[in-house]
Amino acid sequence: MQSGLDLDTVSILQKAKNDENCSSEVYDELKDSALEKGHSGPTLARKFRKLTKVENEDAIKEFSDQNIKLIKRLQQRLRPLDTIPDRFKECLNEMEEYFNSIE
Questions:
Q1: What's CA 44's distance to the chain center, in Å?
Q2: What are the distances in angstroms from CA 55 to CA 22, 48, 82?
Q3: Residues 6+ apart with CB under 8 A from 49
Q4: Number of domains within the chain
Q5: What is the pLDDT of residues 18-66, one digit of tens each?
């Protein structure tokens, strides 16, 4: 890194590099902002939060979609069985409603 980077900028870049939720693309974008555009630590921190928030929201949506698919498959397999308690079926419906509400 260049010696012209302030401590805050270096700290944010290090945090991004070590953050498991930060992709290499996001890190590269932050590094380029610091090195090529001279963005300060606080500016990089805002950008880091914004970029990782979008990735986290996408991951949450994907997780919800996977759970909905799993619940629907389970409901479909259990439908022909007479021995499944109604309360269990209600719980599956509640879980499906919950995961559908996440956006």
A1: 19
A2: 8, 11, 42
A3: none
A4: 1
A5: 988 788 898 999 999 999 998 988 899 999 888 888 777 888 888 999 9
